[in-house]
Amino acid sequence: MKYLFNILSWLVIFVLFSGCSDESANSKHSLSSVRQDIKAGELLPRQQFDRRDNLNVRLQIYTFYISEEGYAELSEVFDKAGQLGFEYSDEKDFIANGLVTTGGDMLAWNFLSKVLTKEQAKVASHMSLQTLEGMSEDVFISRLEAPSNVHYSSGGVVSGLSLVPGEFVLRLKPEPLIGLRRATRLDIETVYKTSIAERGKFGEFVFEAVDCRVRLSPGQFILMGPRVWKADYDFLGDKMFFPERSVSAVHFCVIVCDSILE
Fold first, then answer.
1. Given this model, what pLDDT does residue 92 score?
2. Local structure of 108: helix, strand or coil
3. How far is residue 2 from each of residues 14, 16, 58, 96, 257, measured CA to CA in Å?
4. Which pTM was predicted?
5. Which 3 state secondary structure label does DSSP give 219?
6. Are 153 and 186 within 8 A, CB to CB?
7. Phi and psi of 254, rounded to 5°?
8. 55-65 pLDDT, tens per residue?
9. Whole-angstrom Cα distance, residue 205 to residue 119?
10. pLDDT confidence of 134, banded at 50, 70, 90?
11. For the segment 135-147, what is each residue's pLDDT rounded down to a tens digit?
12. What is the Cα–Cα distance from 47 to 63, expressed in whole angstroms?
């Protein structure tokens, strides 16, 4: 709980002093995920619910955006911050698709927070998520407003996909770990959901090659973002975290484990 309080306290201070950018470059940032009314109270842990029948996991989920140069500096400390053992459906495909993960406790967070403060990263969105074991929840990351093409590596084979307007989400699903009461296995899927209905259903595509999972305890965080920023790249990580090429802003997602109750 000490580590959790420190991480959330930093985020409160970060939002209070940085806020959302008023610069013209950021004013062009039209992603619907960007909220201008982030309240400090939203970042504070709320009262825990005492549920004993099922595993109950509470997560705090933040989407940040930062300059290209700032993200390049941030990515240099990912290895230092990486304390958690991620498992991948296929690690080579995960890397080839332009994605990266890191995470740990407060000691790991300190490496990242110094860069975030220095480079004036902004909070694009925040949400609190409480879910039970075995239940999945979708977390919005970004939206494509126009048809687009993306390169996708699966099984070591790169193919081109045509995407209609829609949105990228992370599908989060906590699963219990036998013998561990204060930890959960968080399964993460990357999904593209279209806004065009077909036969009464909204279409979606699961990028199974980049599925990953990690053991997570209260007070720990994970970060998921693009591996590197290059304007001419069109792989999954690029489309997901740079939806607007006219804006020099890189997106990434931070998930903090708030509490785990039985």
1. 95
2. helix
3. 18, 21, 16, 37, 13
4. 0.77
5. coil
6. no
7. -120, 130
8. 789 999 999 98
9. 34
10. confident
11. 999 999 999 888 8
12. 23
| Residue the block writes with tokens 């993460």 | 188
CA distance 180 to 176: 8
- Please list, residue by residue across 143-178, b when 16 or more beta carbons sit within 10 angstroms of its beta carbon and e when fewer do: bbeeeeebbbbbeeeeeeeebeebbbbbbbbbebee
Q: Could you tell me which residues are beta bridge partners of residue 255?
A: 61, 222
Say what the pLDDT of residue 247 is: 61
Name the token pair of 155: 């099984």
Residue 30 — φ and ψ, nearest 5°? Answer: -100, 10
Q: Which residue has the tokens 């290895």?
A: 79
d(CA 1, CA 102): 20
Read off the amino acid at residue 178.
I
- Match 């053992």 to its residue by tokens: 85
Distance, in Å, from the CA atom of 118 to the CA atom of 83, rounded to the nearest integer, reads 23
